Amino acid sequence: MASTEKLASRRAVEKRPYAPGPAGHWLLGSMQEFRADSVGFLLGASKTYGDLVHFRLGPAHAHLVNSAELARAVLVDRADEFHRSALTKSVFGRVMGDGLLVSDGAFHHRQRRLSQPAFVSRRVEAYAPTIADLVERQIAGWSDGRELVIDHEMETLSLAVVAKTLFGADLAEQATRVTAAMRVLQEEMRSLFRSVVVLPPWLPIPQNIRLRRAVRDVDAILHEAIRARRASGRDEGDLLSMLLAAVDPDGEGTMGDAQLRDEAITLFLAGFETVANGLTWLWYALATNPEVERELHAELDANGAPGRSAAADAQPTLPYAEMVVKETLRLFSPIWAFNRAPTSDIELGGWKIRRGEIVVISPPVLHMNPKYYDEPARFWPSRFGRDAGRPAPRGAYLPFGAGPHVCIGAQLATLEMSIVVATIARRFRVELVPGQTVERATLVTMCPKEPIRARLQRRGHDTRAS
């Protein structure tokens, strides 16, 4: 009771419009609940309180945005008033250095300007045949009735795509080592984000040692790729070639090896983990929504024979497949939260937020808001069709963020997902093995808590031998 009275007194003194009544429970108990189920906690808070919800994460004050208008204000309209939070810099900086996911201000603007030519539409679309070829290789050994682990298959495929498009390399022999390192990075960064106190990275504690070893494993691949490409001087048509050749138009030169490494590992991690989880959820959604699967198959069957080039499946001749990707990223957004910190005391939505406090923008929270989406818990790709009715306002759909920090690889990620779903679904149904419970785990991205087991069923119209 004394603690509650103290909090109430503090609110009165600060003149900060916190929600009345049960809000004290959120302030006192939020850290434990957040650690147990981050997305569940944020969804619960958003349903109970208003457009901006205050809660505590250990000693830190956090403010959850539950409004498309406010999300857009933070990420786009008033983006120059916000930086990455100290927590983000402390955790991600240990792995990504000063990469685009961590940097801010003039330095971020320079790096974005140097990196952007690698992600123009013409360059991204040129990767379609490469991605299609890698999907074909991945499923070459698949057969009717085979059981597989969806997450493992999508991780292997995503690793192959990011290695080829980023470095022009084949990491098949190193796949086990790399995916193991990625899992360690996910687990340890998740643990750091949920810590009441984040200890400095130089302390020789087990967590820091595990993290350093995982980073070292990934770095070995990145540094070798950078060294080899600098030595050859050739443009191999991959993203690394573009980054090496990028010259600042303001005369500030090119990227050095250290910054190239930071940008490369940022792209590597984002391109691998985010897409792998997005594809895993996509197959789960199709397997649990047969009416959507049937409509997707009808579109695929009406647009070419089984031998159709998979690269063509990335083109807008398959609008429903594109809607399936968009709806997957809405209902199963791999990125479950962005956070920002105001650079000075500000007012947002009638609330006073102090410099350095955390503003949390959660795509699942916005994507599940009934103000913006009819039947938000339903997997319904047609909501993104031209005749679907009311469109969601700007700021209500944020699978890749928005504004100056929007994911630079968003177009490449959606291209990859579109090619993968069209190529595989043309030939196979992916059925869940009965008797398993699928739950989410909020690591750095939102992934299944346990591996998802599935069984392949070859579709009748595909006459290829099993």
Task: Kindly describe this structure.
With 466 residues, the chain is of the alpha+beta class. The chain has one domain: Cytochrome P450 (Cytochrome p450, Orthogonal Bundle), CATH 1.10.630. The protein is 51% helix and 11% strand. It is built from 17 helices and 12 strands. The strands form 4 sheets. The protein has a 5-stranded mixed sheet with strand order 1-2-8-5-3. Strands 4-12-9 form a 3-stranded antiparallel sheet. α2 runs antiparallel to α3 and α8 packs antiparallel against α9. The longest helix has 31 residues. It is globular and about 60 Å long. The N terminus is likely disordered.
What brief labels describe this structure?
alpha+beta; 12 strands; five-stranded mixed beta sheet; Cytochrome p450; disordered N terminus
Query: How far do the termini sit from each other?
Result: 68 Å
What do we call the CATH topology? Answer: Cytochrome p450
At the first level of CATH, the class is Mainly Alpha
Strand content: 5-15%
Order of helices and strands: HHHEEHEHHHHEHHHHHHHEEEEHHEEEE
Q: Strand order within the widest sheet?
A: 1-2-8-5-3
Average of the residue pLDDT scores? 83
* Morphology call: globular
Q: Would you count the extended β strands for me?
A: 12
Calculate Rg over CA atoms.
23 Å
Helix content: 40-55%
Number of H/I helices: 17
Reported CATH architecture: Orthogonal Bundle
Mind describing the biggest β-sheet? 5 strands, mixed
- Class from helix and strand fractions: alpha+beta
- Tally of distinct domains: 1
Give unreliable regions as ranges.
Answer: 1-28
Multimeric status of the protein: single chain
CATH superfamily: Cytochrome P450
